[in-house]
Amino acid sequence: MFNAPFPTPAVVIHVTPYLAGAAAGTNYQTHVTLKPEIDANEKPEFSVHSVFHEIAHYYLYARPTWYAEGGAEFAASYARHVLTHTPIEVTNSPCSEAKSLSELETLFPEDSSDASANIDPSLWQCYYSLGERLMLTLYHALGEERFLQGWRELYATLAQAPAYPSEYEFEEVELRVAWLRAFGRLNQPELEQIWDRWYRGTASFVVDGVPDPSPADASLPAIKGGVDRAYVTLSPDGPAVNSFSAGDVTGWAYLTLEYSQRVEGSARELTLEIVEHSEDGFPYSRRDVTITFQPQHAGGTQWISLGPQPGQRWAPGRYWAYVYEGVRKVAEVEFEVTP
């Protein structure tokens, strides 16, 4: 990825529940700490992603923090892509506190980011969220080879530092120029548009249209039934809502699926894929949910959590949640989050 020798002779991992703030892991350059419960996270791939993220920090340890954290998020997704050929996607919900990286830097100056244990979790998560979105947008625009060219140029600057690890802090122009060289001068307008969108905040990041315009087929032949109704609630058994205020939600929202079935004999299990999208054009959550259908029931209701982790706020904007059985879309909801 960085076309350079691994910068440490060994990776020492210390599994401990004592980590700063809400972090799942921390790279201290001498060793990596990871929480033991990451294996019990509801997303099985989260453990692998966390390990990849912390190992990536051996290369990505310079400031600004959004470059280090967003870069490590992208690197973890890229490593998994190389190993498993899964698509490279963002892994963090949209930032609720800022629309751009420059706005984030104003809200939380770089010289205070070493106090991450005391920062608002929603604000700290924005380093990951906005940083990885800039990286992934660059990757899509440049292609793999040219993106890695820019990344390797930046790491070469760090590798020349007199001490390891260095306290090097990239200026914004250094980062932009490294990828400009990868883009080529003739393509500078495209790079500037990306920078306007994610760094400067002078261009909208909202993508027109809907993520998946294909019609939904609500039938579920495996259980001789189907999804009768899909909607969003703010609590299990709560009323359906088409919109809600970010200030009214203290935890997850819920995708509620009402279904009918006609299962005979023994119970049946069915695995559905839940994909969450936001108006910035990125699917930010993709996970499988397995539902057990009992033969003595004619139907039921399933609640599936949506949105950021508890303790983090929703970003205002439009959202979509899609439900797939294999490649077939069986349900969809669209909703809006207001400030």
Write the layout of secondary structure elements.
Layout: E1 13-15, E2 25-27, E3 32-34, H1 46-56, H2 65-84, H3 101-107, H4 121-142, H5 144-159, H6 172-183, H7 188-200, E4 219-220, E5 225-233, E6 243-245, E7 253-260, E8 268-278, E9 283-293, E10 299-306, E11 317-325, E12 328-338
Structural class: alpha+beta
Name of the CATH architecture of the largest domain: Orthogonal Bundle
Give a short account of the largest sheet.
Answer: 5 strands, mixed
Number of strands: 12
Describe what you observe in this structure.
This protein folds into 2 domains: 13-200, Neutral Protease Domain 2 (Neutral Protease, domain 2); 219-338, Immunoglobulins (Immunoglobulin-like, Sandwich). The chain is built from 7 helices and 12 strands. The chain has helices at 46-56, 65-84, 101-107, 121-142, 144-159, 172-183, 188-200; strands spanning 13-15, 25-27, 32-34, 219-220, 225-233, 243-245, 253-260, 268-278, 283-293, 299-306, 317-325, 328-338. The strands form 3 sheets. It has a 5-stranded mixed sheet, with no helix packed on it. Strands 4-5-7-10 form a 4-stranded antiparallel sheet, with no helix packed on it. A 3-stranded mixed sheet has the order 1-3-2, covered by helices on one side. Strand 2 and strand 3 form a beta hairpin. Helix 2 crosses helix 4 (121-142), helix 4 (121-142) crosses helix 5 and helix 4 (121-142) runs antiparallel to helix 7. The longest helix is centred in the middle third of the chain and has 22 residues, at 121-142. The two termini are 39 Å apart. The model has no long low-confidence stretch (mean pLDDT 88).
